[in-house]
Design brief:
Blueprint: H1 2-13, H2 22-36, E1 40-49, E2 55-66, E3 70-72, H3 78-84, H4 87-107, E4 113-117, H5 120-123, H6 128-136, E5 146-151, H7 152-156, H8 159-171, E6 175-181, H9 188-193, E7 198-201, H10 203-208, H11 213-228, E8 232-236, H12 241-249, E9 254-256, E10 264-265, H13 266-275, H14 286-290
Parallel strand pairs: 2-4, 4-5, 5-6, 6-7, 7-8, 8-9
Antiparallel strand pairs: 1-2, 1-9, 1-10, 2-3
Helix pairs in contact: 4-6
Bound molecules: ligand C2E and magnesium ion (MG) (3 copies).
Protein name: EAL domain-containing protein
Organism: Pelomonas caseinilytica
Length: about 290
């Protein structure tokens, strides 16, 4: 039994497993069991309006509460879930959880838009729009209370097919966002054609912008690019008050990061949001921003 546990533990760490191998089959059955035994957790990280300081939404991030290994972060099983196609089950679970949370939050007086991450496999699924429609039908949740985050690479895998799925989802009223913007390879020609509403600047740029002028310039140009295309822009990796002040000054619409809060179990979110007090960014002077 101990040997098996150890083996499971090490399996999860390998992002690239041979699909069809014994190890891979055993991790896949563990993931199936995780859903049946209710081991997946939906965590939420707040998204803040940087000009007003209000909580405007949250990103749903999955965790696996493993009976032996504790709380497993997504990067230890998402790549595998993508390889095996299990991601479609996980995405459906996250989408429904986010929609239900949005309804619950509204009943508590909070209007929040919930963002959910999708992968290439989801975009290649032509049934996805119909599945989301059926999931939303019995709930009191408008389609525009959900935002789907997609990376550039997921789109560029098969741009034409992704475009057709995204157009369908957008026509249903769902919001669409390009995640980790600036790190993948994407083409501005596609960006122009995609029916997206939001760009999320990757945290690597935001976290470095206070000490690296090039990163600061990339952040500034991305905000301009987004606004010139009529898109709203979110900075992820907001870790300091100074970063908040700088982003607000550059006109960035929303921010998300450890300065505001780490992702938390969904059960804690409403109380957290009700207690949230925005900081006074006017305390950070223009001089200190230039330093
Ligand atoms: P992502 O979608 O870019 O999510 C943002 C990640 O950055 C989260 O990591 C979040 O905890 C982290 N983060 C946010 N603010 C800060 C900050 O200020 N500093 C630092 N150092 N990190 C920050 P997490 O939850 O570990 O998720 C990692 C990635 O796993 C996500 O990146 C996403 O690509 C993937 N992922 C998570 N949940 C799901 C899911 O349900 N479905 C899919 N397809 N992918 C998911
Ligand atoms: Mg994301
Ligand atoms: Mg991201
Ligand atoms: Mg990222």
């Amino acid at each position: 039994y101990a040997a098996k546990t150890r083996q499971c533990g090490s399996l999860i760490y390998h992002a690239q497993l041979d699909v069809g191998s014994q190890e891979s089959l055993s991790l896949l059955s563990e993931l199936r069991r995780a859903v049946e035994n209710d081991e997946l957790r939906l965590f939420l990280q707040p998204k803040i309006d940087l000009q007003q300081g209000r909580v405007v939404g949250a990103e749903a991030l999955v965790r696996w509460q493993h009976p032996q290994r504790g709380l497993v972060p997504p990067m230890q099983f998402i790549p595998f879930a993508e390889q095996t196609g299990f991601i479609r089950i996980l995405s459906a679970w996250m989408l429904e959880g986010a929609a239900r949370f949005s309804q619950q939050a509204r009943e508590a007086g909070l209007a929040l838009r919930l963002s959910v991450n999708l992968s290439t496999r989801d975009l290649m699924d032509q049934e996805l729009p119909a599945k989301i429609e059926a999931m939303l039908a019995p709930l009191q949740v408008a389609a525009d209370s959900l935002c789907l985050e997609i990376t550039e690479s997921a789109i560029m895998d098969d741009p034409e097919r992704a475009l057709s799925t995204l157009e369908h989802l957008h026509a249903m009223g769902l919001k669409l966002s390009i995640d980790d913007f600036g790190t993948g390879y994407s083409s501005l020609a596609y960006l122009k054609r995609l029916p997206v509403d939001e760009l999320k600047i990757d945290k690597s740029f935001v976290m470095a912008m206070e000490r690296d002028l090039d990163d600061a310039r990339i952040v500034r140009s991305t905000i301009e690019l987004a606004h010139n295309l009529g898109l709203s822009v979110v900075a992820e990796g907001l870790e300091t008050l100074k970063a908040w002040a700088l982003l607000a000054k550059l006109g960035c619409d929303e921010g998300q990061g450890y300065f505001v809060s780490k992702p938390m179990p969904q059960e804690q979110f409403v109380a957290w949001a009700q207690a949230w007090q925005p900081p006074d960014i006017s305390a950070v002077t223009a001089e200190s921003l230039m330093a």
